[in-house]
Amino acid sequence: MFEAGNIEDEEVLTSLMEAMNDIVRVNYDYIYEFIEPIGNLTMKLIASEHEKPATLAVEVWTTLAEVELQRKQKNGNCLNIISGCYESIIQIIFQGFGKFDATTQDEALDEMPENNISISAGLTLESISRVAGNLVLQPVLDFIHPKL
After folding, report:
1. pLDDT at 105
2. DSSP letters of 4-20?
């Protein structure tokens, strides 16, 4: 699956990341050993020119956080991947914030785009903060402070 990330076709990459989101949701118990390759693929897609696959790649982390939150609420088996990898995940999210401008408008429609990587990065940050709690606070402050 990770080899498909080398194909420079937006449709293939979009399908790949849609499948990756489904795999994370359904096969959570087996995903831990693949976290590093998923992170590398996410970073690669964010750096690419393909916004939709990059947006879906960021959403993999939202999916993972949602699964962990649900499992914690139900006292189910939780691998605590988000809490264990939050620093790396936050760096991926920050890269997503910088990739596309969330304030760009479609001139023909004069409205905001429905979704883009910046919006997905924000939603992902919110999701992982619900799982990891205050652990994400300092890295976020460190990211925001120079921009103030």
Report:
1. 47
2. GGG---HHHHHHHHHHH
